[in-house]
From TrEMBL:
<keyword id="KW-0238">DNA-binding</keyword>
<dbReference type="InterPro" id="IPR010982">
    <property type="entry name" value="Lambda_DNA-bd_dom_sf"/>
</dbReference>
<protein>
    <submittedName>
        <fullName>Putative transcriptional regulator</fullName>
    </submittedName>
</protein>
<dbReference type="Pfam" id="PF01381">
    <property type="entry name" value="HTH_3"/>
</dbReference>
<dbReference type="InterPro" id="IPR001387">
    <property type="entry name" value="Cro/C1-type_HTH"/>
</dbReference>
<feature type="domain" description="HTH cro/C1-type">
    <location>
        <begin position="21"/>
        <end position="75"/>
    </location>
</feature>
<dbReference type="GO" id="GO:0003677">
    <property type="term" value="F:DNA binding"/>
</dbReference>
Length: 87
């Protein structure tokens, strides 16, 4: 499962897409507040990341992944594989 980031105000299907960050955090029994403190951001930032409203910087994504004992790819990987077309 992956997180789908949406434009502000765009409808989301929360039931269809569950954040890997939220799943991992809950599996480890870590609260949003604890994760926020460990990664030096606000709880609101963690909420926004879990809801798909905010894409963290590479540095924050690394801190979150390390704190949760995971990888950036597992927590923030693309929803669909890249097919390798030209940019």
């Amino acid at each position: 499962m992956t997180t789908r980031l949406t434009e502000p105000g765009a409808p989301r299907s929360d039931a269809a897409v569950v954040s890997p960050v939220r799943l991992r955090r809950r599996a480890l029994k870590v609260t949003q507040a604890e994760l926020a403190e460990a990664t030096e951001v606000s709880r609101q930032t963690i909420i926004a990341i879990e809801q798909g409203d905010y894409a963290p910087s590479v540095f924050l994504a690394l801190r979150i992944a390390r704190t949760l004992g995971s990888t950036v790819e597992d927590l923030f990987g693309a929803a669909e594989p890249h097919t390798g077309g030209s940019a």
